[in-house]
Fold this protein.
Amino acid sequence: MKNYILNTLKKNQLTPNNHAFVQRIFKNGISDYVDRLKQYGFLDFEHVLDAGCGFGQWSLALSQLNKEVFSCDADVERVEFLHKIAVENKINNIHTRQAFIDNLPYENESFDAVFCYGVIFLTPWKKSLSELVRVLKPGGKLYVNANGLGWYKHLWYTAHNKTSDYDPQLIAANAWRDTYNYNNGLDIVSPSNLIIEPDQLVKEAENLGLQDIQWDGEGLLGNSSNKEVFFQKEYFGDVGVYEVIGMKK
């Protein structure tokens, strides 16, 4: 599969940022994502939603551990990339479609589990979280992660993963503006980077009816001593990338 992913990358004219991103996320295949999903207990579900699937690394891993995976993303190019990989590798339990996570095209209580990695902060996040909970069955599991202030300090000070079409410092600068506008009921243009602190996300999840909510740094829920995290819990003294897991009442 890894070789086909790289071949698919060569055949698709992606932007420099997207090209570099695909190379990073698939550099070790999908074994790291399979291991992480096992850590979170995202296995043996009938119907799982990968909300904001991107180029599909988590969908491919979910498909190995669960019966049916439904994958959606706002970016058609990314959805088509995943579809090509699934077809070529005869993965028949991944169902792709273009969709926005703040307006999901699925019926209420459709999924036993919902997984949303690295995307909710690019959207009107309270509406998106409400949608994720809406399509989740009672007793179902939700995973979501987000970025605190520390992540944007990291982008500002280090210019992390800068390419010719991706300026981390500009992302960080705009995040302050976009977060201010969003928190004050002003218009934002999607995709926007919104700073979401853990207490905000947990409180909103509770208001939407989630229970048994836990949060920790990215990659640490289910394994607090994990050394193979993708991002740090703190950067420059503030919360960086963190994750939340809860169950719907």
Remarks:
- The mean pLDDT is 95.
- Residues 2-148+196-248 form a domain with the Rossmann fold fold (CATH 3.40.50.150).
- The first helix runs from residue 2 to 11.
- The longest strand covers residues 136-147.
